Every structure is written in structure tokens, then in C-alpha cells.
Amino acid sequence: MLRASIDLGTNTCLMLLAEVESGQIKKVLGDYARIIRLGEGVDQTRSLQPKAIERTLTCLAEYKKIISEAAVLPRDVVCVATSQARDASNGEAFFDKVEEECGFRFSVLSGKDEARLSFMGSLLSGMDPSHYAVVDVGGGSTEFVTVQEDRSMDLGSVRFTERYLKSDPVTDEEFRHCLDRVDNKLEEFIDWRSSIPADMQMLAVAGTATTLASWHLSQEKFDAAEVDKIQLTKEDLHRMVEDLKSMTVAERCEQVGIEPKRADVLLAGAMIMWRTMVKLRFPNCSVSSRGLRYGVLMDL
Asked: What's the pLDDT at 149?
């Protein structure tokens, strides 16, 4: 059966168009990503901003056209929203407007459901679920998931950029403050790490991880198949953090493999990923280009 899913996050809006059979993705016909920054300013204002809403509606109108050409009705698309929608006071009014204009009906996921579905959708072919801990660094939150347990915290690339990394390039003081706050938040997860096997492998998903992998590979054009093969060490992440710290946003945009619209928040995302590996004792991590948009279709 041909189905589609939309994953509306703090920073990105993703759509998957695929053939699904018995809870498995049999064939991907289209995998789309747009950086819409819906969560811009939400951490401070607790409200979705007009320009962010406009960007998102434009993206969803584009997605509606794509699925209509594939003979999928908007009402049959599985649409989920995450962190920014949980935090925004005008989220309900926004989703009413989306349904009125585009026909997409969104469900706002709890952190627990987001974690479970991301885990389900992130595992690559041949991966034993019991051997992997999925770490999903998003724009507003980060999820930590194993077969046995899942956790979510308000630790994200957009959220921490807006809070702590306001200069361009960032100052040493801003960097140290942000690093301290990341480490303090991760202290809450030491018990989670202690509760899972020491040899559990980290699987990093979502835009921060895939962008860092693409940058590491110097990809002129994003190649998901190559990204899915990569392993990054904590030393790789440390080096990338130091490099990003020394650059202006404009300089980051010029780097091969970095999506320009993600350049301003990539340092914060890389810091979260690096410190997760250090604080939670993961010497390296695999990367998956899949994720929540896969999981919600597999869960039908």
C-alpha cells in the first residue's frame, strides 16, 4: 500500500512517500526534507512566530502537491509533530489552520511516543534492536531510546543556540557556558547509561547527525546510503565542534556537506552529540538517515 508520513519538528519538516506492507517499508518512492525552523523563538516566547508559520505552510503546500500527484489524499497521510508543538501556546490554532488550508491532520506526540517511533524507524537492515541505543538530537529536544527504556529532555540544537550561542562567531564564554549546560543536562542520564549494557552501541539519527556525517564525508550531494555506513568517533565529534566554533555562520555555509540553512544551529547540535558520547561513555556511533517518519508508517 502506498502511504506517506510527515514529521514536523522544531527545525525541519520531513515527508516520506513509500510502499508499506505488514509494518515494513518495502520501497521508498520519495524522502523529502525542508528546513522550516518552526520552533524559532518558541523557547523564549512559548508561541509559534508568524514568519515560522508562513514558512511551514509553504512547505506543507509543496508536500500536498507531491502526494496529490502520487494519488495519496491529505487525510490519509500520517502527520506527527514534536517538541515545538508541545511547547507552543498557539499550537492548536496553528494545526487548525494547517488542516483548513492543506487538509493535513497532525497528532502531537508525547516525548515517550516520539522516542518509541524514532527507535523503530531508525534501525537499519540487519541491526539487532537489543544492541543499539538510539540518540535523536532534535531542534528542541533529544531522545535516548533502547528496547527497554526511553528518555527525553529539552536539549536541542535550536533551543541551545537561541539560549547560549548568540554571537557570530561564538565567544569563548558563550561556548563554555553552553558546554556546561549541556553537561549538566546529560548528568541526568548517567543512571540511564548505567542501566544498559556497557557494550551497547550508539545510533545517532536526525539532522544534526546526518549533516555531521555528510560533512565528514565531504559530500557534494547528500547520499543517505553512504551516511548509513559511517561510524564517527568521539574524537571526530570533538574535532568538528572545535572547527565549527572557530567559524562564522557564513563560513560554515561554505563547508562541503553542510546544509546552509542548518549552519547556524549545527555547533549546538554537534556539542550535544559529542558530549553525549563523552558523558555517557560511547566511544563511537553509527549514523542512520532514517527516523520518526519511517517509524510512524511501520506502526500503522
From this structure: 83
Region of 267 (left: φ > 0; alpha: ψ -120 to 50; beta: rest) is alpha
Q: Which residues contact 103 (CB under 8 A, 6 or more apart)?
A: 64, 73, 74, 75
Residue intervals of the chain classified under CATH 3.30.420.40 are 2-108
> What class is the 125-293 domain?
alpha beta
How far apart, in whole angstroms, are the C-alpha atoms of residue 67 and residue 89? 30
Strand order in the sheet with 142-145: 150-153, 142-145, 132-137, 201-205, 284-288, 231-233
pLDDT, tens digit, 9 for 90 and up, residues 68-114: 999 988 888 999 997 667 678 888 899 999 999 999 999 888 877 88
pLDDT at residue 240 is higher than 70: yes
What is the pTM for the complete model shown?
0.86
Residues of the chain with CATH 3.30.420.150: 125-293
| Homologous superfamily in CATH for domain 2-108 | ATPase, nucleotide binding domain (3.30.420.40)
